[in-house]
Structure formats: structure tokens, C-alpha cells
Design brief:
globular; Rossmann fold; alpha/beta
Length: 187
């Protein structure tokens, strides 16, 4: 059963991918399908990725951060530094696991699954999943809500819905293809 209070930490690699982040945060808006969390360190990593790897201008990266923190003020976790040394996943991502432990999150969404091996998470009853896997699960539970939110994003971007899904398929091919297939089947 779907729980709107399901706690999910979004890793920097997920937040920095604008299309994927847009989908996830849309699903976290009211009426939300899950509760997103991140930390200042995660947001700092996001900004670094945006400006150095994705070549975003500083102003756009700052605007992005301001927007998500104002839309989700309850999402920023603090006070978990004491947990970092207890984490055994990849050292550069221990702060992400510590954030998840502190927030009592059940899931970390990341493209870097290798940094969160299951044996480092089991003690904490936390899983790490690729965003596509989680989005497919949300779609299976709430197909109408997920499609409605995707249609809204496409409309706001002034994109044809199928073109939007095809573009999203660059990062989430299985998710995009599943929705496209279901739409074609129902037409």
C-alpha cells in the first residue's frame, strides 16, 4: 500500500539531473506520494555537479537551490554528523546514509548504487534504489496520479506529452517506455 509519508533521501546525482528531479519533486508535492529529504552537503554536491559537470551558470544553480528549499522547507535534514562514522558505505557518500538514518528514511534514491552496497544498509533497514525502479513502483501503485503529474510537467514545458516521455527516457528508459506503452495500449 502507498504511504504518502514514505521517507526518501534524494542523492545529489538525482537532484542534479533536472528532468529526473522535476518528476520526483512533482510527485512529492501535495497531494504527495512520498516525503523527500536531503542535507546541506547533498545540496552542495548538487550545485557542484550542476556548475562543474553540467555547466550551469552559478545564478541558475543558486536559483534551483533556492526554489527547492523554499518549496520543501521540511526536506533539509540537519544534526546527523555524529552518525557518519557509523556508516560503512563508500566514504564520500556516508553523509547521505547518515542523513537517511537520521530522517528514518527507508530509501535512498541514487544513480550510484555501487556507493551503497546492501551490506552497508541492512543494519539500518534502508535500501538504495535507482530512481527508475522507484518511479516504476510509484506508477504501479498510483498510475493516474503519476501520469497526471507527468502531463502537467510536459504542459508547463510546452512539450508534447509523448515527446516529453521520450526525452525523459534518456535517464529513465524503462519508466518512460512503460508509460508510453500503457498510453498506446489504452488509446
Amino acid at each position: 500500500m502507498m504511504r504518502a509519508d514514505f521517507r526518501v533521501v534524494l542523492d545529489a546525482c538525482v537532484l542534479a539531473n533536472f528532468r529526473v528531479c522535476d518528476v520526483l519533486l512533482s510527485l512529492a508535492e501535495s497531494p504527495r506520494l512520498f516525503l523527500p529529504f536531503w542535507s546541506e552537503a547533498i545540496l552542495d554536491e548538487t550545485r557542484k555537479t550542476q556548475t562543474t559537470k553540467l555547466n550551469w551558470p552559478d545564478g541558475i544553480a543558486e536559483s534551483f537551490r533556492d526554489e527547492i528549499t523554499s518549496c520543501f522547507p521540511e526536506a533539509e535534514a540537519t544534526g546527523f554528523d555524529h552518525l557518519i562514522d557509523q556508516c560503512s558505505n563508500d566514504p564520500k557518500d556516508r553523509h547521505v546514509l547518515a542523513c537517511a538514518i537520521h530522517q528514518k528514511a527507508e530509501l535512498i534514491l541514487t544513480f550510484n548504487l555501487k556507493d551503497f552496497p546492501p551490506e552497508s544498509l541492512i543494519r539500518w533497514q534502508i535500501e538504495a534504489k535507482h530512481p527508475q525502479e522507484y518511479l516504476l513502483a510509484l506508477y504501479s501503485m498510483e498510475p493516474i496520479s503519476v501520469v497526471h503529474r507527468l502531463e502537467t510537467i510536459a504542459r508547463d514545458r510546452e512539450e508534447d506529452f509523448e515527446d516529453y516521455l521520450l526525452a525523459l527516457g534518456r535517464w529513465l528508459p524503462g519508466f518512460s517506455q512503460r508509460i508510453l506503452s500503457d498510453i498506446q495500449t489504452s488509446s
